[in-house]
Amino acid sequence: MAEAKKDILVVSSSPHLRREENIPKIMHNVIVALVPAMAASLYFFGLRAILLILTSVLSCLATEYVFQKARGKEITLADGSAIITGILLALTLPPSFPLWATAIGGISAMALGKHIFGGLGYNIFNPALVGRAFLQAAFPVTITTWTPPLTMASVDTVTTATPLALMKFEGKITPYLDLFFGNISGSLGETSALAILIGGLYLRYKGIINWRQPLSYLLSILLFGGLFWLISPSRYPDPLFHILAGGAMLGAFFMVTDYVTTPVTPLGQWIFGIGGGFLVIIIRLFGGLPEGVMYSILLMNAITPLLNRYTRPKVFGELE
Amino acid sequence: MAFKTFAHGIHPEYHKEATAHKGIEKAPIPSKVIIPLQQHIGKPCKALVKKGEEVVCGQKIGDVEAFISSPVHASVTGKVLSVEPYPHPLGGKVEAVVIQRTGEEEEGPQGNPGPPDLDSLTPEEIRKRVREAGIVGMGGATFPTHVKLSPPENKRIDTVIINGCECEPYLTADHRLMVEEGEGVLWGALAIKKAVGAERIYIGVEENKMDALTILKQKASAFPGIEVVALETKYPQGAEKMLIKAILDRDVPVGGLPMDVGVVVQNVGTAFAIYRALKEERPLIERVVTVTGSGIREPKNLLVRIGTPFRDVIEACGGMKEGRKKVIMGGPMMGIAQMDLDVPVIKGTTGIVVFGEEEIELDGYEPCIRCASCVEACPMNLMPLKIGDFGRLHMVEEFKAYGGMACIECGCCSFVCPSKRPLVHWIRIGKIRVREAERKVGGS
After folding, report:
1. Taking chain B, what is the end-to-end CA distance rounded to the nearest angstrom?
2. Closest Cα of chain A to B86: distance in Å?
3. Among partner residues A17, A316, A318, which is closest to B332 by beta-carbon distance?
4. Residue B320 and residue A318: Cβ atoms within 8 Å?
5. ipTM score of the complex?
6. Which residues does chain B have within 8 Å of residue A21's beta carbon, measured at their own beta carbons?
7. Could you read off the pLDDT of B317-345 as tens digits, one per residue?
8. Rounded-to-integer distance, Cα B177 and Cα B174, Å
9. Can you list the alpha helix ranges (DSSP code H) found in A142-192?
10. What pLDDT, in 10s, does the model give residues A15-56?
11. What domains appear along chain B, each with residue ranges and CATH number?
12. Smallest Cβ distance to A265: which of B253, B375, B415?
């Protein structure tokens, strides 16, 4: 009876169904979500933007390749994660930043930010921001030298100040519409709040990010920015300015939402966002730098393992 | 739109359309049945028959003196070929009575006409008859039903919930039972209510089974104290704790049972088996099995004799397609992949799902990227990424501290994981390690 037919039966433990999602699909969607910000950088800063992005991405890919090759690991360039790091790093740099220095940023992002910890999934800090921090330390002047966008009315000046620097050092406020659309000087991909928002909404629509992370960060910036504004409206900018200027939007939608380096628990994500927003305001208003997004996220990255540990959700039916 | 439900969970593709509208068919009576002496959670039965003995369909052939146990019955008339360890669908080999059919009977045992109505039965009699009929939880858990019907004195039961969710993808056995045997299900529910002294009955059905909901609502209007509740279609809505949460908003405590919150939950198949046991005095010798999946030529809902080899059941559905296959007993989320098609259908066999090449995934897994999908999917509000690693790495204390023992193994975490990490598998390892460690402490 049974001998008549030998069937090849595959055995594994349940569940036997898996969602179709995988790491490359998620990463590729994030790249798609970054397209509006990249397009805005092209529009405002011209072909130079593309050169910077390409340099950054290629240096990230090359570094990842070298590390994986040296460690005898599978080469995972196609998963898209190194490309995202490269794009994000480029988007946080001034348009006039030298290409060779950009490559150094890419190499340090991947080496110090990712592969020194063991590669994808093991890093503590956002790799793009590690690269950015490295460049900030290595080239403090170059990285704060800004060129105006091609679309700005007065292009006779070679360099201009960013809205945050104008606010901090000259007490000048840039019009909101310029901030929203991005017609300002600043980092490549941080100027246009609109372009970033489109990408962020796309990520939410695809279910790749939740609302909690970007909103907690932005609301916290609004709250603490608003607090100081209420205390002294003449001395401190209003909260909306804080949201639209600098890297707040890019950070909120593409860095505070990074999977690997931010908490996994809902409460931990709230704390991360609120703490990060608080740090942005403190650094912007009282620190030596005009911008605080980068350090706010890196500092919160550092306490993420702790947050995960101490914000474990209550198990269903757990008595307290 | 706002159907009742629980927090978290997942929305897999259900693939129920292949059998959802196919009526229950009687499978051919097999020439040989294998009746394992353990088809329930609890103490295994001892065989009451010997090799060479003649048995009649419905005859009790295995039982044991133990409260948490359930007898087994011959599902055909014939001769005992052997009493020997036999491959069991839950894994390993289990002592089983193998019967060669000699009887020509097609209709099964002639049950006695049962009691005219429930009023003539006391709760004690109901429990006794349920036990004698060998009824166990037919949603797959196979916990002896008479035990669930015997709540201790200090646990007052106010509510009976009949579980008609059938949240496992692919399965439609309960669905068809509700559509075709709604009255029996309701009658069984009333018997359960009487046995535990409850005040009301809820029948929870996911809203993807509108026909069953309509029929049950219609029929239930004839009975007092039964409410049919439409629930959101979401996995694992049919898990006891999630069902109680959705319908009554009560939280079963960790490590506790539904009776701790005054509830007894029974599957619709169990309610129907109780109906047949009481009303017709028929022991549990057959059940509805959904046979489906891309590897099956003709998916069906079959009424199958307990002990029928999987091979025969699959043959009754036109056999399997070519190529590699995965044969699962139960649904694809919690079912068990089989190594051998000679295993018999048991009381807990809700379905036989056969997957072909396209559904068989044997890829490795990637590092965790801490996307938190598993945290957001877990209906028990656990951190599967953590307890999975603790299980994998044999970190017993950490596993316990993060509530790993509360995992219901529903599979939501593994399902959503983009890195394809076998989280439930690791959590099972963790549970085994915890039990080992506790045994060691207890034994020393």
Report:
1. 57
2. 14
3. A17
4. no
5. 0.91
6. 373, 416, 418
7. 999 988 889 999 999 999 999 999 999 99
8. 5
9. 163-165, 176-181
10. 999 999 999 999 999 999 999 999 999 999 999 999 999 999
11. 1-27+115-360 (3.40.50.11540), 373-443 (no CATH)
12. B375
